[in-house]
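[audit] Reproducing an earlier prediction to check determinism. Same input, same settings, fresh worker. If the tokens differ from the archived copy the diff job will pick it up downstream; this log only records the rerun itself.
[audit] input (395 residues):
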Amino acid sequence: MTRVAIIGEGIGGLTAANALSRAGIEVAVYEAAAELKEIGAGVALHPNAMKVLRAIGVEDSVRKVAGRSDWQFMRNWKTGRVIAKTSRQQQAASFGMQGATVHRADLLDVLADAVPAGLVTLGKRCTAVRAEGDIAVARFADGSEIAADIIVGAGGIHSAVRACMFGPDAPRFTGKICYRSVVPTGSVRGAWSYTDAAQWLGPHGTIVLYPLRDEDLINVVCHYDDDNYRHESWITECSRGEVLERYAGWHESLLRLFAAADTWYKWALYDRDPIPQWTRGRVTLLGDAAHPMLPYLGQGACQAIEDGAVMATALACDPVTGLARYERTRRPRASRVVLAARERGLSNHLTSPWAAWRRDLQIAWRRCVNRHDPEGRGGAWLAGYDASSPDVLAD
């Protein structure tokens, strides 16, 4: 039986562990953290990701902890004018599945609970990997080593496996930053409804809101053009006053929401070009370790989930050629998403009112002429994809 060792217990690693286990492949997961903890943030699971979660048997559990929203809005930054409005029913009719929004900690709990007992080992920080003939070996900070037929680096953007294989990455600062917070719905004053998912487009910025844990929490992610701040960490706090000052002039409902947030975090957005190779010998990459991307399509977690499903299908079909087929299938699509997310960031932050008007008009036109593009932004190729299909593999 093929033995697969996954380095990293994030969303992609746990999805892969579940998919591989269901395919009858022996799998073990090694996580650097001594306990499972996750940042307080949400994650959008588009229909393409939910199809995989259904295939590995966790869709119902995810929906039980998901936010509840019937509509997705796209709005003007200042007036609140609706640029586009899509129902969950439209989404399901177009793509065969509704999306969901969940707290990252809740999603990881669901995925971890579904993994067969004994497959996860905590407190194992990988420091090196190497190939030895028909096996691969991972070494950990405590001096121990493990051997497997295949090692998968799923440790995120700073993956030790990726660094061992290809050296340090070359991030490029985008001139964009993000603020994030999670706000209890009951703490927001005023009659404005925050329970539907919404994206607000404005000059130099984008604001994304969606509910978590039914309607108890509102996930807030705010993007802005800023050449000065360059720190990439997700856990650096900033003041509420800075956020309110940054978005002064935006719609008053947003400012009320921001004022209700106790804690804000801030980080700089760095972009990385798609890499030309994911696999060397018996070692490969998955998720952000393979294809880190900007957040403008909400596809970072979704693409990691797709990776896990395709890997399981490829290795179940033929463990000898499986890694090559996995990369041939996934790398072109993931690279396309990386580049599309880069372009979406530019489109979202238009400073010219005329350019923004043309963008909004194009969105309306696409919605009219293509019923399979309910958002109106040409993203049907993303949401309509089914990574769990047995026909997904490239030749």
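[audit] rerun output stored. Observation attached for the diff report: The longest helix spans residues 322-348.
[audit] end
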